[in-house]
Amino acid sequence: MKRASLLIAVLAALSLSACGGTDPDPEQYGADPVLPDHQRGLLPRMTIANPTNWGDELPMVPDGYSISAIATELKIPRQTLVLPNGDILVAEGKGGNAPALKPKDLIAGPIKAKGTTSVESGDRLTLLRDTDGDGTYEMQTVFAENLNAPYGLAFIDGALYVANQDALVRFDYTEGQTRAEAPPVTVTPLPSAINHHWTKAMTASPDGRFLYVGIGSNSNITERGMVAEVDRATIWQIDAATGAHRAYATGVRNPTALAILPGTDQLWAVVNERDELGPNLVPDYLSSILDGGFYGWPYSYWGQNVDPRVKPQNPEKVASAIAPDYSLGSHVAALGLDFSSPVMGAQFAEGAFVGEHGSWNRKDPVGYKVVFVPFTAGRPSGDPIDFVTGFRGEDGKTRGRPVGVTVDPRGALIVADDLSNTIWRITPTR
Amino acid sequence: MAATVDRSRAVSGRLAPLHSFLLGGAITLFIAAMLSDWAYSTSYEIQWNNFASWLIAGALVLTALAVVWGFVDFFRNDGGQTRGLVYPVLLLITWILGFINALVHAKDAWASMPEGLVLSIIVVLLACIAAGAASMSRRTGALS
Fold it and tell me: Which domain holds residue B38?
């Protein structure tokens, strides 16, 4: 009996260590973040978003800026694209068909789902139009439907490219069009088995010859086996004309948004790193992506920091792993990336906006905001600055979760919110 | 349980048939989980880890029922002889360690190792000892 009560006490202590307490300071920004030791109690530390409606509230923006909702009642908006005539396309949907592998999947799945919208996947593109240029988007119409969890969007002279969760497709597009005239043409299939991480982020090369598509890993950290990871955790470079592809970079766990730094040919990405190593591991990052670069997943993170959960290990791959450029902080779940321009005002003229969907694998939540990473001479040059906040209120309730961010050259930041199913528009007040 | 069942059990020195099934099933599943863990630890083949997780979950269900049965038996039939408590208490400890083992197995990939294999071995040994205690207490009549 003594032994039994001792065991119960030990169990209680273990579960307390997993659930109680507070997390260390989440500020680990920049090129050389502090990486603590691994820690994982018997239960992962979790705080799931507790959704509520915006009501009369709005997200908060810096002085000198205003925010408004330009579209509501969408069906899970993720990424947006501003077309040459100022129309905005919104990709809506939800993908993934990963089966439960372990008893924990049956428990964790429904718990995590509580922090997301209950609206069903739109599988469509919605077009928003501001006819008179007053900042109100009077027209909200379906541009194309019956897509398969569309996410990445790109425009190259007369064609719209859409990265569905299973294929890259192309629509012909003439300026001013509000509805696709025909079903899209498939450019190339994309890896879609299981699709644990289903989002296919995309951007086009400046010359319009290539499309870059991010393909996330099929697991947190190889728990679905290495066979499931063929052609995963990679960024493909796809020839827009032929659909031929090659792996441009590998070891990129979940590249959720891609963008080209203006004035260069350099591809940048925000990448979500692995969970369940502790509240301050592993930092999600913003990084330039080098041709042929290997960024560690699954064997290591932030360069040569070996992940002991991966067996068998691969020391040669670890040795070749590139450390990313800039830590955004662990678990922030960066899902949006776009580079700014002087139209956004002097303080936010040079740098990158990053949409942070927000954490689950942390007791004290992080993310749930849009930040601005200042750049100087084409490199990140300071800590992130909050740009849009208030998605998670002081009351602990979550009203929205930012995903895609797009700079409208007319002078606005477009933010997709997949919890309140809203598109936000932030403008400098002149 | 009907009193007649208890009497026949006392005479034969055996657990009730359904109780035996629960205990035997639990031990079988715990052993299978242990072997799956061993297979994973030597092959790194992730499916063995998945098998172990489900086998442990199944074993915990059967063990929980057997624990309840064991305590009910004790309180219904035992006149305060603490020897009769050995079996259900050992089995309860088995369940608690098995539950911890289930949480360990919920960790991703090799994070469940080697603790998962060690716990699986301990749980199998404890379950076998508990089963031995059950038959001992019956042979000496402590449980009737």
Answer: 16-139
CATH of the domain at A79: 2.120.10.30
Local confidence band at A52 (pLDDT 50, 70, 90 cut-offs):
very high
pLDDT in tens, A390-407: 999 989 999 999 999 999
The answer to whether residue B124 scores a pLDDT higher than 70 is: yes
- The verdict on a CB contact (< 8 Å) between A222 and B108 is yes
pLDDT the model gives residue A330: 96
Question: Is position A17 within any domain?
Answer: no
Is 90 exceeded by the pLDDT of residue A348? yes
Assess if residue B34 is contained within a domain.
Answer: yes
B50 and A101 in contact by Cβ < 8 A?
yes
DSSP string across B64-105 = HHHHHHHHHHHHHH-SS-GGGGHHHHHHHHHHHHHHHHHHHH
The verdict on residue A412 lying in a domain is: yes
- Report how far residue A204's alpha carbon sits from residue A237's, in angstroms, rounded to the nearest whole number: 9
**Distance between CA atoms of A261 and A370, rounded to whole angstroms?**
18
Structural domain includes residue B122: yes
Residues in chain A within 8 Å Cβ distance of B49: 223
User: Which residues in chain A are closer than 8 Å to B45, comparing Cβ atoms?
Assistant: 225
